[in-house]
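User:
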Amino acid sequence: MSQPVAVSDASFEADVLQSSLPTLNDFWAEWCGPCKMIAPILNELAREYDGKLRITKLDVDENPATAMAYGVMSIPTLILFKNGKPVERIVGLQPKDRLIRQLTPHL
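Assistant: Predicted structure:
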């Protein structure tokens, strides 16, 4: 059973940019209420799209360099990376069906 994987500034290139699967990275922080609300949805997506989509999480407080590099100004921000490039950006808490609609064209 797949689940989101924690990544860091140091591991971001290997875990996200070099991933063979499209990778949805969740830029989040422990104190962020909407981040906690979207976490169960991301857990479900990780299970349902296992083998088609990889989901990672980067704590912006502990790893500010990557968040800054991608212009993350508010959280949660979800960025879908495909072949090492950002192809979709989703800002704020979204319902599961809307996330699926935005991600599906890239899978």
